[in-house]
Fold this protein.
Amino acid sequence: MTLPRLDNKAARALFMDRHALAEQPSGGAKGADLLQLIHRLGFVQLDSINTVARAHDMILYSRRPSYRANNLKRLYERDKALFEHWTHDAAVIPMEFYPHWHLRFQRDEALLKSRWKNWRRDGFEQQFATVLQHIRDHGPVSSSDVGQDEKKGSGGWWDWHPSKTALEFLWRSGALTVIGRNGFQKRYDLTERVIDTHLCPGNLACDAEATVDWLCNAALDRLGFATPGELAAFWDTVSVAEAKQWCEKALTKGLVQEVEITCADGRLRKLVAQPGLTEVETPSPPGRIRVLSPFDPMLRDRNRAERLFGFHYRIEVFVPAAKRTYGYYVFPLLEGDRMIGRIDMKAHRDRGILQVSALWPERSVRWSDARTRRSQSELDRVRRFAGLEDVEFAKDWLKDPK
């Protein structure tokens, strides 16, 4: 039987549309408008690196140029429309989704008790009651407010003292909630004081099957088409086996169908999608060049991005400088529905300068004078977003493709 098929261009456009990149970058970027965008994306990954702007801010800015960092802070900390927890990494997530995280709390509790027993040094479980009582008596805390008499290990920033480990464990397992950050340091409070009572763990039964169903459906909504592994990886709560079982049941009930997607290299890949997906018309993405965050949700699954866009991208933050192919924190460049290159740049706030060290076009891209002008226009927009006064290009900044 011939399966419904999306050619590569249509697949890219649909995937970009699900990630709010197929329309012109415009629209409201605060309050309900910003919340609606995050709801559409599912979550926004948080990251502390501030080479130009933090990842979560770049993600939102690339879709809504009027966005500014305080808009997210207000939505999260003042309006409490978002909560912070883990998907594949730390993220802010619409509060509406909170009941679906009870399964994550349970699974993280079991996982971290076994994993952190040796990795995070002994003694953190003995600090649970002390940490909880301290917060109950004194209000929200940061890690620097607890365990002051405990010796930190010598293994680096990740070698936490027991009370810091207890804080993280109690957050990951649902007893505590992160209510915001000072700089990038988390502040924790009792969940019962932050989250509406009817949403709190213990007041709402955790139906694992219903949660898996919601997570898989919600992932498929945002991916458009996916394998069981991609569904599982989206929220990183369900297992691949659970996602596979969900797909099998959904296929039997006619809730999803198998489709074929043409990859960038011409190969066909079989996935599942909601019925009628191949007949949906999606807008053609705008031709404007955009700088994306290295953690942009469209590129988060590096293998999927490579199959769809033919764009091989790896962040090299943890690669020794001498072994880097491009640079410490290199930003992908999007034009229309193509990834056209990557750029190494950094904000020098003491001088008010956005310094562009290098730009590497992709091999398939001819870097014309018109592209140079469009890329410089985008860099000027990024410069304004970062609160800088000028863009400065290094000598020989335009490189040959690698």
